[in-house]
Amino acid sequence: MPRPKRIALGGYVYHVLNRANGRLRIFRKDGDFLGFEKILADAASRFSMRLCGYCILSNHWHLLLWPRGDDDLPAFMRWVTPTHTQRYHSSHATIGIGHLYQGRYKSFPVQSDRHYLSMLRYIEANPLRAGLVRRADAWPWSSFAVRRGRESEVALSEGPVELPSHWTRLVHGTLRPPEVEAIDNSIRRGCPLGDPAWTETAVRRLKLESTLRPRGRPKKGT
Asked: Is 123 helix (H, G, I), strand (E, B) or coil?
């Protein structure tokens, strides 16, 4: 049975995530990270995609994208994923060995308010939470390092919400447990991240009703 087509309307901000197959470390050397950044930069130019934030770790990555038009997001990802897979296998002599990624990318829309800021903080603080660095800008492969002056082929776009002047302090601070719980739930379920009224509208427009339904088999009537 073919997989259902994703509806990705322009104007929404989307968090996009994918992991390596079997949690394999597909980003080991600087060249691996730089190569993926080059792909992101080329794709952003090719599809006029606004890339508001990103973080690349050894076995997965996060993107915060703000597409202009309907279906720009899937078109962008249909180019990024196979291009990275092809170049990775070519440079590592692993052609024919197996899948690079565990499956299709995950994505969900994010409300352009405080939820956007929470999502971006979550992404840019990822290396801190993973215990890889003591300061977020010490991890070079993220939008936070670029904001702090690191040269990169990736040109960050202005997001729908202006970053506060104390953004560095926010990234190094701790997200409140309810914020983390909401983000983790959206990553797990693919459901929108936002206030209830906004979420209801986004679910209806993007046909995401299934992401809010209880999981498991329905209980039998008594």
From this structure: helix
